[in-house]
Write a structure and sequence with these properties.
Length: 434
Amino acid sequence: MASTPAPTTADSAAPQARSVLRDPAFLRLWAGTTASGLATWALPFVLGLAVLHRDLSAAGLGIVLAARTVGFLLAVAVGGVLADRHSRRAVVLWSGLAAAAAAPLLAAGLGRSLALMTAAAALAGAGQGACRPAFQALTAETVDPARRQQANAAMTLAVRSSTLAGPALTALLAAWLDTATLLLGIGVLWLAAALVPGRGAAAAAPVSAADAHAGAAAGPAARPTPRAGFRAEFLDGLREARRHPWFLAGLGALVAVVALGYSATSVALPLISRDRYGTEWILAAAMTAYTLGALAGALVIARLRPRSQGWAALAGLAAYGVAPLSLVLPVHPLVIVAAYAVAGIGIELFNVPWFTATQREVAPDKLARVSSLDFLVSYGLAPVGLALIAPAIGAFGPAPVLAVCAAACFLVPAAAALVPTSRHFARTAPSAED
């Protein structure tokens, strides 16, 4: 297990290392991640076009998107175990192929069978969920520790760019292509996500058939230990997560920001943009500013190495609180746009060191399972927040709810920073020279 930071000599040699952007293996992985991101963000937009064209009802859209979310949540835990049990590259391949196979099924059910579209959406969500922890672990296999922060920044740039380019590109293509063809195009993107990435270094590969045969030849005492069952391996991943107090603290802070801060702004921003300012451009400008801020944050953190990286990351996460805070009072619209840009910067100042620390600190053979716990908890509780925030705003009004959510965004990361190992996102502090 790599539970201690790299020696100072390795840190001093890091600046001379070749840029990760010149590494063909990483570029293939980055291209596959980008393709999966484009496919993920384009699908809701294409299904929205189906509603506009009356090929799908609004209620049907909700059912289909809910099925995709359920498929994602069920598969992300399974994908984490499979990616630690088998080749991470194989999990990316088969999960990408599953998502690609869902695309023609969605097209076939369009305007004909809501049941088929619901099943296909669940399959697409399952493919997306299974590949997420596998991609995370494959990054650690493909890139050496000295360049992982740069690699994770490049990955998050791909994700954030997809949030801008996916819907925009889809809208452009919609002028010439029908909805069914666009769905098939999403399948092509998933094919690229499945086929383009290369094989990682397999730092903790399972026992090969040749090794098992050699063990059998050596006698009963040399036989490899049989693998535990799926449930036991998943619980083993939970135990690994519990060994890292900084991880549990950071995950709790992330859940608070996602389930309260992000959910509150998702519900309140459209209402405030319409009711307080009488225009929808504030909604569009704020969300664009958030994405652009996230892109800027990823560019900054690709090279920034704070001395107390955990505290700096949690401060970035807490910065999301300025977004709900800006909606409490009737401020100038530019204040809201600026607040969302700050929130976007802060979220990537957290995300990139968070992913890098997880890849560094967690035992390599349990990395995908711990990553799946991260995605499962943060993604899984987001719908709960959305379901609770809307009734709360209806009962108490937007201002009190937004104020409480902003306070949670500030206070919970601050509390997480009090956990001793949170300062450096590591069980052992870096040397004095770092």
